[in-house]
Amino acid sequence: MLDLERLNLRNPWLDVCAIALWGLVLLKLWLGGQLHLLIHPAYHWLTIFAGLALSAIALVKAAELLKKPARQNSRDRRPQAEHLNFFPPGLGSCILIFTAVLGLIIEPTVFVSATALQRGVNDFLPITQSQPQSFGQVTRPEEKTIIDWVRTLNVYPEPDAYSGQKVNVEGFVVHSPALPDNYFTITRFVMTCCAADVYPVGLPVKLETSRDRYPQDTWLAVQGEMMTEEFGGKRQLTIQPSSIEEIPVPANPYHY
Asked: Exposed, middle or buried, 115 (CB in 10 Å: 0-12/13-18/19+)?
């Protein structure tokens, strides 16, 4: 059995590798055009700066270690003072290296309907969440995105006020168990800071047939008019579609 108390991974090169790999992870996401899948655009500059800074620090530390004689490096690895460690020296760097390697291997993916159902699809912005950045004023209803409609409902939640208005939105399909079989929810995720805090918002779409015709996670462009339907005793703004067209997953699948 591994004795953590005797395990000694005190090696300055482990720290250098951990710093360099995490700098590489951040720069890979940036150069690969995947940063928007994990980080809000407002914080892209900070993430890029962190990647460059970590890479620079790793280079400086590596240069310092290469200049030191081997005997000096060996002396540096000796314990300098007794102090309490929950983990053996160097184990933290090993964990950082392991997670960074996973970050280089595993590609980030777009959240899907399973996450939306787990977190709950709403037609309002939760007050416990940070509000997304403000959008420019949209005067024509057919130019509103899903998040624009949800923000409008947050201001004035009376669904009858929007009945008959044109709608043209894009999102992915979620089969909510709270809706009848001839309804699905057209959904988008909203990101306020990073992928850890995304939450889904959406609007019901009424169909003349079963929603099985539109599998979950299919991206659709839905055009039609707004109407009011009642679900579980609650009146809710609903889309009466005149056109439903399948579309590819957009380059940026999130709203902000």
From this structure: middle
Per-residue model confidence (pLDDT) at position 132:
45
Q: Rounded CA gap, 63 and 59, in Å?
A: 6
Residue found by looking up tokens 């009945």 in the block = 163
- Rounded CA-CA distance 159/141 in Å is 14
Instruction: At 233, list the tokens.
Output: 């005793």
Residues 6+ apart with CB under 8 A from 234: none
pLDDT value at position 7? 46
Domains of the chain: 12-105 (no CATH), 113-255 (2.40.50)
Output the average pLDDT for the chain.
Answer: 84
* Residue 112: predicted pLDDT: 86
Mapped onto helix, strand or coil, the DSSP state of residue 87 is coil
Contact between 9 and 88 (Cβ < 8 Å): yes
> 77 pLDDT exceeds 80?
no
Give the pLDDT of residue 128: 42
Categorise residue 182: left if φ over 0, alpha if ψ from -120 to 50, beta otherwise. alpha
pLDDT at 131 exceeding the cut of 50: no
Query: For residue 173, what are the β-bridge partners?
Result: 186
